[in-house]
TrEMBL record, chain A:
Compartments in which it is found: Mitochondrion
Protein name according to UniProt: Small ribosomal subunit protein uS5m
Classification lineage: Eukaryota, Fungi, Dikarya, Ascomycota, Pezizomycotina
A GO MF term: RNA binding
Organism annotation: Capronia coronata CBS 617.96
Region named Disordered: 24-64, 179-213
Sequence intervals crossing the membrane: none
GO cellular component, one term: mitochondrial small ribosomal subunit
Pfam family, one: Ribosomal_S5
Highest taxon of the lineage: Eukaryota
Automatic annotation (TrEMBL), chain B:
Name of the protein described by the UniProt record: Small ribosomal subunit protein uS8m
Segments of this protein annotated with the region Disordered: 49-75
Family membership: Belongs to the universal ribosomal protein uS8 family.
Entry keyword set: Mitochondrion, Ribonucleoprotein, Ribosomal protein
Gene Ontology annotations for the cellular component aspect, listed alphabetically: mitochondrion; ribonucleoprotein complex; ribosome
Predominant cellular place of this UniProt entry's protein: mitochondrion
GO molecular function terms attached to this record: structural constituent of ribosome
Pfam families: Ribosomal_S8
Length: 402, 170
């Protein structure tokens, strides 16, 4: 049966001014034209089943204007009654509902406290600003200098002058009159934790035995990686990064073949973080660096049972490659093919078995394995979703000494 | 006890979960009702209410209808209305993913599978028994039809009862 609408009698168009429905026109063949199928028993969308707040307030009027609890004092009750008179109930209901505009927040927060993780860092407060502060006049500066000169101890000989005294004076000298914070710690538009990127730090010198080794400044790509991930150079060097697939790819153009190097790398901290990255460049070295940095950038946390194996059995599928990863008891080791072995080493998984059931394309195997590891479900979350309580009996039996 | 209807129900619940439906209906039979109550007991669905062809009204405080709601009493089944009765099920979602993700038959209409306690024990431990795969995914459940009603496989092992394996839910 054709999915398109069947051809219809054109002359029927003229006989009727308006078209009530497509089916009412004469058909040229016997196949029935289906209208959009509707289920016989209409279901309800989950989004439509949320609690209707306005309906609830109508139903429970006692919450809105009912009796005021007796434990309030007489003045408090009077104040509440006065407020209830002033505030229009409809208006209140309109204003206190959940926001529906596109700029509404995607999470619940009372916004009264500053969370150091989520919120922007606190800047110097506006209160440091002093409206009455002004620059010191020349006389006042002179007075400061005179005061300083008087506090200098009497010199014992000709060259007896401590330059640190002058440095201290120079440092502490104030140029304005008014609140001290306004000059010393003025309000700035910059966030306080923002690193100063523009300054290029001088190359660090470290002594290695007798010879002095000058540490090279990081390359721009490494600097970007450090800014993106928040890791410093030492932390990045401690990650386990492996290049596991490397081959040449060719683009056939009318002018000839253009060869490039393709590299796929895995990165992990051997403690539950794993990421893969692909790189392609004319030079193999560039491709390796590109893929490794991308892998570090793409690192995501995975679930591990007892920090050694996975939770149950997981499947992964990328294109025609399908694989299954199985959790195994302690001491089992990694019994799987080399690509999955490398991924597990980077992620810090010690006991695992794997089976690649369909195509064994190396690139897709790596991607499917990482996808499977990420797709694990936390049993605690599953239990909470079902309203159950979960206890790991393994920990109960051996008193946590597994 | 038609497994054909149950197969339709399994795929319907899977589809309804993926379509993020809150309330959907399946045919009302005694077998369906017992299985759905077992699912509700395990926490896969929020409510089971017998109703007509249109969805029953939600409880004034809860987000789903309940069978004990005094404002919307259940219509008793009579010979006149029995053909129009449906079981209305409330589907659950957690962290924007459905609680009931996969539901498939183990016994098929053409090949029913019975299992005794020893076999069920193997399944519950995550080992294969016969042609049936063990419960190796976290949170997976198998429902067994026994002479004491429809029970979860783990409960069957607890009570030392065997029966016909119906479906696998995860």
């Amino acid at each position: 049966m054709s999915v398109f609408r069947s051809s219809e009698c054109v002359f029927c168009l003229f006989s009727r001014s308006s078209r009530p429905a497509a089916a009412s026109r004469r058909q040229f063949h016997a196949t029935r034209v289906h209208q959009k199928r509707k289920p016989r028993f209409p279901s309800v969308k989950a989004a439509n089943t949320e609690v209707n707040l306005s309906q609830a307030t109508q139903d429970y009027r006692s919450a809105k204007n009912g009796t005021i609890p007796q434990h309030y004092s007489a003045e408090q009750r009077a104040a509440i009654e006065a407020a209830q008179k002033l505030i229009d109930a409809e208006n209140l209901e309109k204003q206190t509902g959940l926001r529906t505009d596109p700029w509404k927040m995607k999470y619940y927060d009372d916004l009264t406290k500053i969370d150091p993780v989520v919120d922007k860092p606190v800047r110097a407060p506006w209160t440091t600003i002093d409206d009455n502060s002004r620059l010191k006049t020349e006389d006042e500066l002179e007075d400061d200098l005179v005061n300083f000169m008087q506090r200098i101890p009497q010199p014992k000989h000709e060259n007896d002058f401590d330059p640190t005294l002058w440095d201290k004076f120079d440092k502490n000298l104030r140029l304005t009159v008014g609140r001290e914070e306004a000059e010393r710690k003025p309000r700035t538009a910059l966030a306080p934790e923002l690193p100063n990127i523009s300054d290029t730090p001088p190359p660090k010198k470290t002594t290695k035995g007798n010879e002095v080794v000058v540490e090279e400044p990081p390359s721009p790509a490494l600097v970007r990686l450090m800014q993106m991930t928040g890791y410093d150079r030492r932390q990045i060097s401690q990650l386990r990064v492996k290049t596991i697939i490397q081959h040449r790819v060719t683009n056939q153009t009318r002018l000839g073949k253009i060869h490039r190097a393709y590299v796929l790398s895995v990165a992990g901290n051997q403690n539950g973080l794993i990421g893969i990255g692909e790189g392609k460049a004319v030079e193999a070295g560039d491709a390796v660096l590109q893929s490794q940095y991308r892998a570090i950038r793409a690192m995501t946390p995975i679930l591990r049972y007892e920090d050694r194996t996975i939770f149950g059995e997981v499947r992964g599928k990328v294109s025609a490659t399908e694989l299954e990863l199985y959790s195994r008891p302690p001491g089992f080791g990694l019994r799987c093919q080399k690509y999955i072995w490398e991924i597990c080493q980077c992620a810090g998984i010690k006991d695992l078995a794997a089976r690649v059931t369909r195509a064994r394309n190396p690139m897709n195997t790596v991607k499917a394995a990482v996808e499977a590891l990420i797709s694990q479900k936390d049993p605690e979350e599953i239990a909470r979703a079902r309203g159950k309580k979960l206890v790991d009996v393994r920990k109960v039996y051996y008193a946590g000494q597994t | 006890m038609s497994l054909v209807h149950l197969a339709n129900t399994c795929s319907h619940l899977q589809n309804a979960s993926r379509a993020r439906l809150g309330l959907t209906s399946v045919p009302d039979t005694k077998f369906h009702l017992r299985l759905m109550l077992a699912l509700q007991n395990s926490g896969f669905i929020s409510t089971v209410v017998r109703g007509g062809p249109t969805p029953p009204p939600p409880h004034s405080l809860l987000t789903h209808p309940t069978s004990t709601d005094p404002t919307a009493p259940i219509e008793p089944v009579t010979q006149r209305n029995i053909s129009t009765r449906r079981l209305w099920l409330g589907l659950k979602y957690w962290n924007s993913s459905p609680v009931l993700e996969k539901m498939s038959l183990i016994s098929k209409p053409t090949r029913r599978i019975w299992m005794d306690v020893t076999g069920l024990k193997q399944l519950v431990l995550g080992k294969d028994a016969g042609y049936v795969k063990g419960l190796r995914k976290p949170g997976e459940c198998i429902y067994v039809s026994t002479d004491r009603g429809i029970l979860e496989a783990r409960e069957c092992v607890e009570r030392k009862m065997g029966g016909m394996l119906i479906c696998r839910v995860g």
